[in-house]
Amino acid sequence: MRLVQPLERRQLCAAGTIASSIRVDANGNGQFDLTDAGSLPGMTVYIDANNNGKLDGTERRTTSAANGAYRFASVPTGTWLVRIVTPAGWRQTIPAVGEGRFATVSAGQTWTTSLFGTTNMPAGGGAIRGAVFTDLNASGTIDTGEPIDSSSVERVYLDANNNATLDAGERTARVDAGGRYVIDGLAQGAYVVRHVAPAGMTRSTPRAADAAYRVWLSPTRTAATNLNFGYYRNTAAVTGEVYDDANNNGQRDATERRIAGARAYVDRNQNGLRDAGEPFFTTGGTGVYFLLNLPPGTFTVRVEPPAGYRALGTGVRITLKMDNTTEDVDLRVRRV
């Protein structure tokens, strides 16, 4: 440890100045980032002449100004140890807690490198929590009966460089047997939270285009919760038949025939038309259709009739679930 000379042993005929400031290290990471802003006024700064780590009665002190600046004028030449007294609710991060700044004073010169950083974020007080689940109905929320995924061990991660890739050294979370994860011990600051998607599944939440949550932890928000990741497979199906409802009674009677050449389709955008990309099936002689590999969710199934027929009704509104087939969704047409 560098020794500090007692004040009374210094030559008082030559003196200089110590001038620097106290700034806010917002995320408490021990360095000043581009996003850090703000200074701390009214904080006590002192010269620890005997290097005992506390402010004694005879030691020189000053108070930081509105912009966080502090200044000691007429300081005898030599090496001095500068420390700060952090107020309640704050902690020193630059330099580390308990450390001071050595200032080497030369005659007529100003030493300006004794900069301090502080934060009001509790050390390791932040946490991010959520779950990974199978979203059977693609609703984006965890509903009763939906299974929690406990197979995603260490696939939730903090994307430090925001490149949408789990890189070496990035913090990961272990998903427990209940599908829940927690990343704790976090300092104040901004975080991007992602999950490595399971193969063959489609994401339902988060709905952001880049599949990420962005959160800011602070003294007023030390925990971000319900950052859930939901996935589903396109394994829903619907089947039925298209028939000529000659008497328009809404049911197929014994004499009413099934229609070939009709196109049953999922009207995803609810515009009453079969658009490009919407799943469809053209019926054969049995009039039966199968719409397979559909995503879960609520849709309307409609029919595009063959020439000489018109569709009856406005289609059938159904709710599909993953791995389930909805049967007997019959569609009606009538000869023009």
Number of helices: 0
Report the biggest beta sheet as strand number plus sense, adding barrel if it closes.
5 strands, mixed
CATH architecture of the largest domain: Sandwich
Record field, number of beta strands? 27
Write the H/E string, N to C. Answer: EEEEEEEEEEEEEEEEEEEEEEEEEEE
CATH overall fold name of the largest domain = Immunoglobulin-like
Give the tally of structural domains: 3
Gross morphology: rod-shaped
Unreliably modeled segments: none
What's the end-to-end separation, in Å? 99 Å
- Global mean pLDDT: 89
**What value does the Rg take, in angstroms?**
35 Å
Q: Helix- and strand-based class?
A: mainly beta
Offer a quick outline of the entry.
The chain has 336 residues and is mainly beta. The chain has strands at 15-24, 44-47, 61-63, 69-76, 78-85, 91-94, 101-105, 110-111, 116-119, 126-134, 156-158, 172-173, 180-186, 189-195, 202-205, 213-217, 223-224, 229-232, 236-244, 263-266, 280-282, 288-294, 297-304, 309-311, 316-320, 325-326, 331-335. It is rod-shaped, with a radius of gyration of 35 Å.
Task: Summarize the topology.
Blueprint: E1 15-24, E2 44-47, E3 61-63, E4 69-76, E5 78-85, E6 91-94, E7 101-105, E8 110-111, E9 116-119, E10 126-134, E11 156-158, E12 172-173, E13 180-186, E14 189-195, E15 202-205, E16 213-217, E17 223-224, E18 229-232, E19 236-244, E20 263-266, E21 280-282, E22 288-294, E23 297-304, E24 309-311, E25 316-320, E26 325-326, E27 331-335
Parallel strand pairs: 1-8, 1-9, 10-17, 10-18, 19-26, 19-27
Antiparallel strand pairs: 1-4, 2-3, 2-5, 5-7, 6-9, 10-13, 11-12, 11-14, 14-16, 15-18, 19-22, 20-21, 20-23, 23-25, 24-27
